[in-house]
Specification:
Length: 296
Amino acid sequence: MVPLVLALTTSIGRPNTVQDFPIENEAREIPSMGPFAINLTVVTIGGFVTPTKTQTAYVYYPVSGPTHGPFPFVVYMHGMAMDIEPDQMKTLYEGEWEAIASHGFVVAAPRSGDGVSYYQDFYKDQLRTIEVARELGASLSPALANADFSHVGVAGHSMGGDATCRSAAAPGYNISAAVALHPSMWPTMNRGAFAPTNIEVPTFFGTGNLDVVVPAEIVKKAYDEDPHAGKVLAEIDGIGHMEPTNKGDKWRAYAAQFFLCHLKTNATACGYIYGSGPQSLCHFTKMTDCKVTPAR
């Protein structure tokens, strides 16, 4: 995991001073899109354990920008019933994937199955995507030629957020950061070794006070149980469960900054997440609850 040393625990409403996180003082929204132009391709992964119509993944990757790579690899998992129709998943989540990729990441989005019956195995397709992409690299697709598998990110929404939390507890994949948006951490699910108490990497838990599918209290409980320093809880005022699929999604900018902080050790990005300036997560965006526990 990329080493990152931060100093303070911050909660909304309790401003503090954080050193070495340069951010602008002007209170304006952080742009969702980064400096890289991106392309899209589709690759065949194969070996998915869940019932599925396809064994493929969308891959968004940088093609030009400030550097030529390498670009950390990120795997994003969709929510339940989000890939029923052709290209439905792409239509719903494309803005999210493009935003992360445009900051200098190779983003793979597996077209895995849909249904409660395989819910607890969904994370295996996330890990399978890492395995195949890492093993085959550019021979699988030129899009992976500059992918960095030494610092991997995992992300997902709803059922995909649950999968992301499970993957964040899995050793051996070089996973260094996780973004779980509205993760359906149902207490009735048998989590075993993949409970939040076993998460091994910095994790961003995102929710909204209008989420009636996965109430915010479930996500907050997962945050509280996560023992890893370098975790974030953000509850945005006025949003519901499907916010990550919206064109005006409020998560894009901060999800990308979280990965920049932990996968690229970008100090400015760390300031946006853990800092106390007017553009930082707990001080700029309208929140009903926001907590950060920086890495020790």
